[in-house]
Amino acid sequence: MVDLLTQIATSLRKDVDSLLAAPVFENSDGELSQVRAAAAVQAKTGQLVATAVQNARGAGYTWQQIGDALGVSRQAAFQRFGKPIDPRTGAVMNTAPLPQAVSIAESIIDDLAHSRWELVVQRFDSVVAQRLNAEGLAAAWAQVIATVGAFDHHGEVKAIRAVDVTITNTPLAFEAGDYIARITFHDDASIAGLFILNPEVAR
Questions:
Q1: Are 112 and 136 in contact (CB under 8 A)?
Q2: Boundaries of each DUF3887 domain copy (predicted)?
Q3: Is 19 in contact with 35 (CB distance < 8 Å)?
């Protein structure tokens, strides 16, 4: 029986062959064919690495050894490829962040920057909504502006899974200082937490 790693590698080789052959064949969407083939190669490569990692774990290699092979820390390797078991249910835990978390976080930051307080509070879950209303949110943002000046831009949003929620961290650049917007989401995309943190505190 052919193992999964070999199956994926064989399929990947076919995709690479298709990518290399695309310029040879005359068709109206030659460049798009290359894009499709390249996307398939990218997806299969990820599957190949994940399968190789699981095979290594099954053979008794530690996350430290796997991380060293990947050029990352053991924690980073585990967070990407590990399959932790939820002690509450005995089932494999969901380790994937909310798919739309990055775009939602960017939208929320844009709403804050343009004083659209009501649009932000509409996203709060019931617990956050009881503690913070639009007026309180406006006051908190005003305090940040009073400290470091006008908002300029935000950096790349980073999203991670933390048990039942997704946490996003986004660098915020102001006139005279920087902060981190930390927004926590439930799987229904409602906000479970919203904090504007000093970068030193956010680490």
A1: no
A2: 105-194
A3: no
pTM attached to this predicted model: 0.66
- The more confidently predicted of residues 78 and 127 is 127
Residue 32: count of CB within 10 angstroms of its CB: 11
User: What are the structure tokens assigned to 103, written together?
Assistant: 């775009």
| Cα separation, 69 vs 123, whole angstroms | 42
Looking only at the bridges linking them, the beta strands covering 191-197 and 178-185 are antiparallel
Render pLDDT for 124-153 as a digit per residue (tens, 0 to 9). 999 999 999 999 999 999 999 999 999 999
Structural tokens at position 99: 């798919």
3-state SS, residue 185: strand
**Domains of the chain from N-terminus onward:** 4-81 (no CATH), 101-202 (3.10.450)
Buried b (16+ CB within 10 A) or exposed e, 105-133: bbebbebbeeeebeebbebbeeebeeebe
Mean pLDDT, all residues of the chain? 87
H or E stretch covering 165: strand 165-174
Calpha distance 41→73 (Å, rounded):
26
